[in-house]
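Possible race condition, two jobs.
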Amino acid sequence: MIRIMAKPRDGVTYDGYLDGKLLVGMTENVFTDAARALLDKGYAPTELMTMRWFGSAHDAFNPVAVGVAAALEVRSNNDGRPVFRRKKREDASGSPTTTPTQDRAVRAARTG
């Protein structure tokens, strides 16, 4: 299982480390951005990952497939609390859509 170690930078952004090496830096969404970075590095979308804050003895999340985490983003709900939602992008017309890589990763992780 992959464990991302998260370290706060300035109270808003974070760095994510894998095996002591910086994987993602200055991000507001270290877990999901780290998942996308793992896919870019060739990790299997079905491989399990979690995250732990530096200095903590416990993981912050239950393990989830890299492909599933990569297809998510963090948004605030009506109460201002963070929630995971499926990541979307806008196409040329401005309509939201998911990327083909995200769709393939989610399908692979679900059937994995």
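Job #2 (started ~2 s after job #1):
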Amino acid sequence: MRVFRIRLLLCYVRHMANNTYSQRVSRSVKNRAYLAGVTHKQIAEAIGRSANPTSQRMNGHAEFSLSELEVIAPLLGATPEELTSPAPASE
């Protein structure tokens, strides 16, 4: 029973880590898109996806692939690394 609880806890921790990463990247893409005047439709066209899968990525429910970020980054005036790096700490 104890092994099961540990495995369950590890699955939860992994899920939360991935979820946080997806949300951080999607927030970064959304913020930069807004500042650059780039629409969701333009992002969807650039990565070759329809509106629904792009919306899932933009809302943090699915992850952008590295190849998608490499296509999106120049549209937003950023690099893929800038889109995926943690936000600087607030002062």
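Helices lie at 2-36, 40-47, 51-58, 66-76, 80-84.
Logs attached separately.
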